[in-house]
Design goal:
Layout: E1 2-7, E2 16-21, H1 26-37, E3 43-48, E4 56-60, H2 63-76, E5 81-86, H3 96-100, E6 105-112, E7 116-123, E8 126-134, H4 144-156
Antiparallel strand pairs: 1-7, 2-5, 2-6, 3-4, 3-5, 7-8
Length: about 160
């Protein structure tokens, strides 16, 4: 068995969501969940089939983001892996709940704009996602000033009241 670290290619500020699902209707159900969550959402979606034709199924509202999602899904290559590349102004927090309610979704691995890589195990014609590398390691622990800054920021962008 071989282990590989597969970097996720994306624009620096783009958010991506990585997950694991099953069944051929996953692509359509994820697409519907996304468009029903954020009116006018721009995204690209790719899902790796794990049996039968073993195609990368794709969908989305932005051709360039769909192409990027497909490129990353092929690079990871794990069966039933999916990736959503979100367009500018859309954040994972806007769509995560809807994605979790899609019956085919088994797991969500990451939702981030950070530099991201996937740890993949490969054995013969199979690949598995073992985990993700999301961002960098912590540099310290927040102090009182950092806590106040965090709370102020969340209120400034409207995610908390008051």
């Amino acid at each position: 068995m071989e282990l590989r670290k597969v970097p996720i290619e994306k624009p620096e500020t783009a958010n991506v969501i990585l997950g694991h699902a099953h069944f051929i209707k996953t692509v359509e159900d994820l697409h519907e969940a996304l468009v029903q969550s954020v009116p006018g959402i721009r995204f690209g979606l790719a899902f790796n089939e794990a049996s039968q034709e073993r195609l990368v199924r794709k969908s989305g509202t932005d051709d360039a983001l769909v192409e990027l999602a497909v490129k990353n899904a092929l690079a990871v290559g794990a069966g039933h892996f999916f990736i959503v590349v979100l367009g500018e102004g859309v954040f994972p927090i806007n769509v995560m709940h809807a994605l979790r309610t899609v019956p085919e979704v088994v797991n969500l691995y990451a939702a981030t704009a950070n530099p991201l890589a996937v740890l993949v195990a490969e054995e013969g014609d199979q690949r598995a996602v073992l985990g993700v590398f999301d961002g960098q390691t912590p540099l310290g622990v927040e102090d009182e000033a950092a806590t106040e800054h965090r709370k102020g920021f969340l209120r400034a962008i409207g995610y908390k009241l008051g």
